[in-house]
Amino acid sequence: MLNDPNAFSRRALLRHGLLMASTSLLLPSFLERSAFAMAHPHLSSIPGVPDERILVVLQLSGGNDGLNTIIPTFAPEYYKSRPAIAIQERDALRIQRSDGLALHPALAGLNDLYNDGLLGIVQGVGYPNPNRSHFKSMDIWQTADTSATGNGWLGRYLDSECCGFGKGESGTVEANASQSAGPPSISIGRSAPLALDGSKIKPVAFESAQLFRWSVQDSDKDLSQAYDTLNRRGIDAAGQQRDTNADFLLRTALDAQVSSDLIRKAVAKRPQTAFPQNELGNQLAMVSSMIGAGLKTRVYYVSHGSFDTHSGQGGPHGRHAQLLRAFADGVKAFWQEMKAQGNDQRVLMMSFSEFGRRVGQNASQGTDHGTAAPMFLMGPNAKPGVLSPHPSLRDLEDGDLKFNTDFRGVYASILEDWLKADSDKVLEGRFKPLKVVKP
Known about the structure:
alpha/beta; 9-stranded mixed β-sheet; 11 helices; about 30% helix
């Protein structure tokens, strides 16, 4: 059936069962050659863009309490505002080469990364006129637009790789609209975040590699032969690809099948490192296996939470501590695995939350939605240390911290200095890069 030029029509595609076992995937995730590109290095980006570089995004969902993550032991206002949940200085992990800052005691794994020069801490991150709605604020972070509209910022980056916003070796923008679509981003979860949604390149999302499977009749036929037949039939006299509707559907089906096979085989190869046996540990283990298998994916996305600690947040041993420990232990295992693979120099990790919490604790011994929060950059190429000042606990706005670092400046540095993309084009505006990547 796969080699029959008349075999596929839109109706036949549905009738013959191009079925996904995972409900988290939709057909647009595999448009054209984007999925097939995961395995094909010749489907490259525009000149000068480093194909070998990978960005892993770790989202701390629900609004992580930054004040109990990066603890301002220097500030009496912190302890006065949080009599029941403040982390005492004697319990905290002092941050080396900082002035009165410490990490939550559950962040021992993160502290190890910091001491090894693999962690950069950006404090007081936010945006003008902050929104305290989980959904609205997350959309703002994911679109890099305070109106929370448009495609995701990483989706626009991946679009730019096939549509001409990247930078060449000389640093100038090189446009080449004829470039093939690059590999899609991969998100571990039930659905892909808005951040990965582009107008041309759509993300792949799945919870379990075993569920990530497409079922096509006669799928045991030789896929390479089917591709050869399809490609010969689709090339016109000028050497351009001209798919018919049937060819498009067949190509989509083949791309999806090849990609699902590649991902399942990659994840089946267990990492060398023992990851924590929890949801985040499993997500990071899958990402590390895909990186180790050599997939051409440039952006991976995982999430952890919920950090919405309105009540019973606890001090050194409460719910917040459990979440932070899973975060720190997971990322430490991930970087141990990257080093064991020899891939650590290829990867940069960024972690963020949609907002922080209010300075004062509430009546339920928790914290309510706030504003500014810390971000983390991890890896050998992350600029190490504390990269921005802690926001003032004396100069507040309606009981909230005032942000001192626009998150889009962090994005701009990642785009410019790590991914070698034109941040003005991708972010659709000019934001001064905060140097978070080593020169």
